[in-house]
Backbone:
């Protein structure tokens, strides 16, 4: 039998199936020590090609990869053969992953690399083109250095790093961490050699092929192309110029340079290949948001980030007259989109196009997106000489540097502030979950400052008396606010003065209330649409009066964002008078748990998915509090920490499932080995981890009740 194996291996060598390993070795002459990689490769090939035992072959090849210290060629052969084994088993996703891993790990193995790319091209189904995306990429040498880098997959634009990096390798790492594919290069002479400089992408000229090239042509032509840095995409004579490209993530498409302005910008459009059957997510508007933006003269809440809805004050150490170089890093770090500059919104690194008023009410998401894409002549091109400013009362379609798209309007202009409203497009998954009304709560609230319960926290339904030490609040504003924050108090009874002005009032000026005649039976959707984006007025406290025919109905929103419907039913007799109310508040409909802890495998997969999606509370629920690494886990999963482990998980390729390689259960303990696959380059310190690498873990879990929880990752 051993003789037959040797003869078979010689035959396979002659057929070229093992053309890069050592000559065959007679199996009868094995030493008692570890087998050389060349011998293991022969055994694996025999198991694969002669015995047809693909699982045994895969195990042998994996052993070669783990032990192949004598030569990288053996590990390369084994990696390629594993891909072929999976292909024969019909497991195409795993086969494709092996071929991708081969291409990434063994770039010097050119002959096998060609075959791996050919196999990968066959495995990848051919789809059509996605949407045409237009962008204006600023020259990287322009000031400020914004919108000069682009990620083709997402269409997202980036500036250069806020602080200059030390060397070329540092820049490459930074580009990889952001997924950046190209940089604006419009600062060179002569003008016919400017355009884009690709980062770790493969490019080929495709002159005059924008309308005629087929997806299969792009795949075929790029199959053997190697990524380079820089990969020049330039206008050689006159625009337009076309190139096909493949990014470090494997995305392919065709790009057209429409216009180049030396020392300013390069205007491009491109379209990328999609998998067959890809359904582009439908977008809808999120809630309308209203905000008060103070002027920069006040220094308070005058900067604003549209994507998060956060307002920022001028930080300590900066003033309106500060050197712009000092403010740029802070602005970029906080994602700031504009500042209220004496009654006008001065934009920072974003696009704004004036639109007709009717678009606000039409809620046509496609039309808004197309306005920003089809009319690049109106795009904001930030230069030292030009500033694009939004003024009242026009409506603008906008796109932020992070790619957020929406509509914005200035509603009110005062000496010290502007009142704006805006709404942004959101994917269905990001739109607020369904809400329902909770139970009806009835209370009697007495005159503020009395010995009776005169204050209410709507969320909990609790009533409070004013603490003895705060009844005279003069000079104690900070103490009052601290107590309000601790108790959650929202409103106070107000039953003094004319009957028409009696009812409830916000205890501090952070309650919002609006009359709502016949509003008790409103739907949750209608309530959110009315109150969701409202903010307290800059001056004054919210009032809810019990005048006219009772009950009097109001919509309200608390400082914590809770929304509800309240009715003033009447007043008590006596001194002090009390106001009788009933109310109901929105609460989230109970959603299906995002985690499954029923088995060790399910827990690991739930944990990884939760970290990847940024649902860190769900990730924490997968961890045992009795584990010796619990504190380290909590630090690792802290929302604000941006821990390297989170970054590593978010670099995974979600098209390839988390793979469980072994599991050993003893009563209520389990040791499990697993890995996920990197979808892009990742750095651990200065060490570069290539796309396609398996990140392997050996984790320990314990059974707590009916849940498997992680003790050690």
Residues:
């Amino acid at each position: 039998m051993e003789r037959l194996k040797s003869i078979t291996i010689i035959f396979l060598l002659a057929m070229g199936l093992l053309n890069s390993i050592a000559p065959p070795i007679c199996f009868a002459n094995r030493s008692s020590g570890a087998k050389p990689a060349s011998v293991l490769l022969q055994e694996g090939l025999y198991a694969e090609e002669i015995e047809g035992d693909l699982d045994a072959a895969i195990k042998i090849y994996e052993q070669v990869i783990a032990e192949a210290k004598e030569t990288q060629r053996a590990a390369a052969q084994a990696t390629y053969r594993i891909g072929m084994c999976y292909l024969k088993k019909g497991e195409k996703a795993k086969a494709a992953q092996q071929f991708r891993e081969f291409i990434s790990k063994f770039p010097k193995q050119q002959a096998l690399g060609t075959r791996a790319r050919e196999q990968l091209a066959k495995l990848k189904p051919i789809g059509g083109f996605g949407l045409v995306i237009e962008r204006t990429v600023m020259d990287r040498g322009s000031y400020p250095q914004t919108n000069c880098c682009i990620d083709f997959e997402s269409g997202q634009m980036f500036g250069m790093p806020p602080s200059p990096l030390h060397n070329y390798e540092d820049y490459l790492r930074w580009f990889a961490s952001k997924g950046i594919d190209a940089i604006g290069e419009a600062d060179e002479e002569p003008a016919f050699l400017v355009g884009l400089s690709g980062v770790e992408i493969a490019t080929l000229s495709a002159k005059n092929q924008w309308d005629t090239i087929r997806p299969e042509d792009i795949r075929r032509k790029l199959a053997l192309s190697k990524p380079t840095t820089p990969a020049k995409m330039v206008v050689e004579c006159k625009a337009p110029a076309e190139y096909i490209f493949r990014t470090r993530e494997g995305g392919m498409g065709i790009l057209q340079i429409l216009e180049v302005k030396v020392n300013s910008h390069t205007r491009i459009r491109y379209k990328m290949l999609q998998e067959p059957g890809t359904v582009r997510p439908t977008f809808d508007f999120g809630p309308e948001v209203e905000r008060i933006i103070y002027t920069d003269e006040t220094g308070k809440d005058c900067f604003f980030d549209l994507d998060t809805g956060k307002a920022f004050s001028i930080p300590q150490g900066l003033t309106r007259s500060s050197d712009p170089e000092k403010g740029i890093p802070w602005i970029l770090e906080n994602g700031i989109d504009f500042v209220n500059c004496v009654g006008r919104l001065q934009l920072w690194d974003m696009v704004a196009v004036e639109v007709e008023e009717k678009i606000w009410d039409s809620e046509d998401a496609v039309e808004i997106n197309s306005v920003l894409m089809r009319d690049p002549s109106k795009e904001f091109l930030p230069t030292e000489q030009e500033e694009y400013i939004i003024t009242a009362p026009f409506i603008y379609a906008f796109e932020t540097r992070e790619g957020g798209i929406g509509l914005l309007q200035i509603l009110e202009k005062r000496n010290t502030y502007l009142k704006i409203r805006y709404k942004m497009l959101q994917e269905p998954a990001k739109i607020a979950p369904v809400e329902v009304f909770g139970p009806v709560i009835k209370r009697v609230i007495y005159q503020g400052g009395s010995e009776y319960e005169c204050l209410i926290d709507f969320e909990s339904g609790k009533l409070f008396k004013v603490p003895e030490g705060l009844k005279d609040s003069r000079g104690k504003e900070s103490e009052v606010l601290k107590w309000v924050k601790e108790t959650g108090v929202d409103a106070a009874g107000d039953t003094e003065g004319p009957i028409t002005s009696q009812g409830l009032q916000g205890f501090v000026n952070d309650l919002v209330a609006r009359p709502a005649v016949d509003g008790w039976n409103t739907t949750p959707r209608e309530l959110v649409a009315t109150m969701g984006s409202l903010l307290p007025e800059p001056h004054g406290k919210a009032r809810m009066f019990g005048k006219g025919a009772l009950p009097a109905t109001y919509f309200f929103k608390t400082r914590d964002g809770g929304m509800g419907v309240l009715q003033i039913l009447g007043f008590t007799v006596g001194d002090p008078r009390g106001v009788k109310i009933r109310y109901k508040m929105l609460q989230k409909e109970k959603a299906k748990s995002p985690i499954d802890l029923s088995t060790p495998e399910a827990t690991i997969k739930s944990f990884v998915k939760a970290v990847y999606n940024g649902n860190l509370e769900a990730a924490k629920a997968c961890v045992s509090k009795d584990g010796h690494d619990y504190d380290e886990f909590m630090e690792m999963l802290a929302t604000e920490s941006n821990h390297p482990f989170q970054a590593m998980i978010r670099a995974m390729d979600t098209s390839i499932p988390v793979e469980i390689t072994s599991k050993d259960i003893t009563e209520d303990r389990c040791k499990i080995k697993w890995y996920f696959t990197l979808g892009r380059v990742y750095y651990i310190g200065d060490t570069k981890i290539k796309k396609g690498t398996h990140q392997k873990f050996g984790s320990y879990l314990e059974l707590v009740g009916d849940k498997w929880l992680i003790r050690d990752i």
